[in-house]
Amino acid sequence: MTPPPAPADVAEAPATPTLAEQRSAQILAAAVTLFAERGYVDTKIEDISNAIGVGKGLIYRYFRDKQEVLFHAISAVQAEYTSGHFAGPQGTEDPVAALRRMLRMHCRVADEHTLETLLAYRSTKDLSHEQRERIKALESGIVAEIRHHLDAAIAAGRMQITDTQVAACQFLMYGHGWALKRWALEPEVTIERYIDAGERLLIDPFVTPR
User: Fold this and answer.
1) d(CA 175, CA 183)
2) Which of 39, 158, 182, 208 has its CA at a distance of 20 to 30 angstroms from the CA of residue 97?
3) What is the pLDDT of residues 52-84, one digit of tens each?
4) Selecting from 3.30.1490.190, 3.90.480.20, 1.10.10.60, 3.60.15.10, what CATH number does the domain 18-63 have?
5) The domain 78-206: what is its CATH number?
6) What residues contact residue 122 under an 8 Å CB cut-off, 6+ apart?
């Protein structure tokens, strides 16, 4: 009889969201839609609660006020990059391959969270100073991760770039560009075509011959 696998050999099952996490996500999704349709200023807590069929008191159980709802809606998207999927393996991975992967994921996050990305551009000014600084810190971390791989590619003789800080910011802006301009690009330009074009613009010209 084959013994059961040891705990280390058993794949870890994905965690099931708690009821509180599910409710919080529901509130944020409704808020993002309403903020996009009506604007942050013209959306009230009552509008959010009505959209999901609950009393506004339930909203206040999860968020202090509308400003905090906005902050979490914006920062939740940036958390996608710190989930481990964005940074990914760093040991033996070719730095150029890492950059291609990161650009692809960055564009896909913008594709999946277009409204939240637009909201960040439109309404970050409505956050408190502390909240804006926290958003800035999250974004700076994303840029730093991209720059890390750019510097690694240069050190390995795989790329030639004079200013990796600016180049890393261009990576960030390119992904955001899909969310900002997909209304004008689609359906002629698909997300795959956009990603491929990004590689030709931001990576391929700087790769050194092997």
Assistant:
1) 14
2) 182
3) 999 999 999 999 999 999 999 998 887 776 665
4) 1.10.10.60
5) 1.10.357.10
6) 39, 40
